[in-house]
Amino acid sequence: MGYGYISFEMNEPEEDSLVILANSLIDFIFKYGLPREIRVSNMIVEAALEQICEICEIKLRKVKRLHAMDDFLNSMRKFN
């Protein structure tokens, strides 16, 4: 089972991170195509992506944990 990619972008304090997230999803769709499913663990992120997923018929699923994110955070902790 493959995971999507993890990326980050530093935001200025006045920037809306949810708008940036939505734009990142749109950029991903144009570059790689429609994913079948997007998993989120945060209800605010879920709300930000809900309309895009509905329009594009992408399954949006809220889960308790994102294992790819856990793996990433654990690997970053090793550098501490």
Short description:
The chain is mainly alpha-helical and 80 residues long. It has helices at 17-32, 43-56, 67-77; strands spanning 37-40, 59-62. Helix 1 packs parallel to helix 2.
Describe this structure in words.
The structure is a single chain. With about 80 residues, the chain is mainly alpha-helical. Helix content is about 50%, strand content about 10%. It has helices at about 15-30, 45-55, 65-75, and strands at about 35-40, 60. Strand 1, helix 2 and strand 2 form a beta-alpha-beta unit. The N and C termini lie far apart (about 30 Å).
In helices, the fraction of residues equals 40-55%
What series of H and E elements makes up the topology? HEHEH
Major sheet: size, sense and barrel closure?
2 strands, parallel
Broad structural category: mainly alpha
First-residue to last-residue Cα separation: 29 Å
Total number of helices: 3
